[in-house]
Amino acid sequence: MKVSNLPKTVKYNDSDLITIVQGGSTKTITAKDFLNTLSANFSKVALELRDLREEVSKNTLNKANPVLSKPLKIGNPISAGDAATKNYVDLGNSQTVKLDGSSPIIGKLTYSDQFSFQAKDLITKKYADDLLNLTMKTVQTLSGNSFPKASAGDVFISKTSIEVFASDGPALQEGDVLICLEESEGGTNGEVGKQFAIINTNVVSATESLEGTIRIATDKEVREYSLNAVALTPKKFKDSLDASSLFNRTLIAASTHDVIESEKGILAIDNRKNASEITLPSVSSLTNPNMFKVVIKDEFGAADLKNITIKALGSTIDSKPSIVLSNQYQAVTVYNDGKNYYIENNTHSTGGSSGSSAAAESSSIIQSGTIQPSAVDTDITMYAASIDLSDYDVNQGFVVEVSGFFADNTNNKDVAIHIGGNATVSTATTAAPQDDAFTARVTVIKAYKYAVAYGYVLLEGIAADTYRNNILELDWSSTIQVAAIANTATAVSNIKIDSMIVTPLK
Q1: By the 8 A CB rule, do 492 and 374 touch?
Q2: Rounded alpha-carbon distances, angstroms, from residue 62 to 49, 53, 56, 58, 159
Q3: 365-505 to CATH, choices 2.60.40, 1.20.120, 1.10.10, 2.60.120
Q4: What one-character DSSP code corresponds to residue 231?
Q5: How far, CA to CA in Å, does 248 sit from each of 242, 266, 281, 298?
Q6: Is the backbone of residue 195 left (phi > 0), alpha (psi -120 to 50) or beta?
Q7: Which of 331, 424, 428, 500 has CB atoms 3.0–4.6 Å from 383's, for a disulfide?
Q8: Could you give the CA distance from residue 364 to residue 355 in angstroms, rounded to a whole number?
Q9: Residue 477 — φ and ψ, nearest 5°?
Q10: How many CB atoms lie within 10 A of CB 328?
Q11: Residue among 355, 356, 307 at smallest CA distance from 328
Q12: Pairing of β 365-371 and β 495-505
């Protein structure tokens, strides 16, 4: 039966039994014995509590009237709330400086070598002196023309300009500052100059008449030649000379080439495979047109077979849109006036010979085929050719030769060669030639001012029929016409022209 199922009671008798478990066995004890046992135990605990209370009373301070019967013995405090002895407190106070200064420092202060100062920390005099020695001191006026006696950090300012300072030193301007770097007895620049630093306070840009600072020119500024207040190093000067030299050589092997400004100098043309077309830059696009000059050279001697054509963008060359190199090893030098190009020199080398060399003959103008005048009693142009006079230099020129036949009769017959509209040689005996072949020949040579034309008409088996020496006023920058002219009085069949050949003399 469960204990909880037993009937309840509020009273007990001394003889009532109480069930207990003791040593693993269920036993009974009377209520009286049980209560007596509890009473005895409580009495013992009460005595122990009384003794404890008396002991605690002896060792506890009265909060209202704390009185110690004997001195406390405690160690130095460790935590913030620990008690501290009078001796501990007094010792601490003896090492403290009061804010009102009433308790001076008696002993010497010591400092760590590891400085990490706060704003109001104390420092030693030596530490302060060392720092001050590294700073500028009160500025003093420089007197005399020498470095002054000074300590490190002393500062001096010059009130005057001195062309040569301290015997052999630099120039000083008014306002320049001298700073002493180390203890100095003063003296000349050679003696103590290294002990001072000189600061130029009024730095100006240097000019041809004013001392100052100057910077090194950039590569772009050197190429543009645009500034007058920058310095040019020896290497930049050499590079500039190299870039502007007429002796610079650029090999051009392409059939077409657009010249750029940096290619000024010699343009060596390799036209052995193809004819070449060289285009000069527009004069207006040149950065420095007065420094742009080129020599265009047939370096491989192929211009007679594969011509070199030279033209310019937006400009002319001797008033023409283009010029042609058509002789072996020919070279032309071209400059400009800021607007257009002009020929300074035009060589026509043909391997050391001139006149009727293979190169010259290859550029001859040949017109052939027997023709007759189209009308009678009037000048009829039989053959004509255009000649660009700008292709010729002084002491160069060309030959015009006309060949034909006069009919067997006494009718008047006349043949002439016209140069730029000027009649040069013609048949003198107009009625005499009959059943005769003829040759008319004129040589034109460029002089410094005029052109000289001389020649003859030669009849078959007869001496020269006519010989003439003419002074022609030709525009050597123009293109003229040379022509074979015939005039027959009676019948067009009286004159036959077989050929006209124009051969350059270069």
Answers
A1: yes
A2: 20, 14, 11, 10, 85
A3: 2.60.120
A4: B
A5: 7, 6, 18, 16
A6: alpha
A7: 500
A8: 11
A9: -105, 5
A10: 21
A11: 307
A12: antiparallel
Closest CA to 456 of 445, 464, 446, 448: 464
Where b means 16+ CB within 10 Å and e means fewer, 77-102 reads eeeeeeeeeeeeeeeeeeeeeeeeee
Instruction: Report yes or no: 400 and 422 within 8 Å, Cβ to Cβ.
Output: no
Write out pLDDT tens, residues 76-123.
888 888 888 888 887 777 767 776 666 666 666 666 655 566 777 777
Query: E-strand spans in 358-490?
Result: 365-371, 380-388, 397-406, 413-419, 422-426, 436-446, 451-459, 464-472, 479-488
Q: Is 458 left (phi over 0), alpha (psi -120 to 50) or beta?
A: beta
Q: Which of 47-56, 168-177, 249-258, 398-407 has the lowest mean pLDDT?
A: 47-56
According to CATH, the topology of domain 245-347 is Jelly Rolls (2.60.120)
Q: How far apart are CA 350 and CA 503, in angstroms?
A: 14
Separation CA 82–CA 430 (nearest Å): 155
Q: In which element (H, E) is residue 199 found?
A: strand 196-199
**Total count of residues recorded for the chain:** 506
Query: Who's near 84: CB < 8 A, 6+ residues apart?
Result: 76, 77
**CA-CA distances (angstroms) from residue 396 to 451, 459, 504, 505?**
10, 28, 8, 6
> Could you report the per-residue pLDDT of 186-236, keeping only the tens digit for each?
999 999 999 999 998 777 777 777 777 888 888 888 777 778 878 888 888
Please name which of 442, 403, 392 lies closest in space to residue 419, comparing C-alpha atoms.
442
Distance CA 208, CA 125 (A): 53
**CATH 2.60.120.640: which residues of the chain?**
245-347
Round to whole Å and give the CA distance between 382 and 370: 10
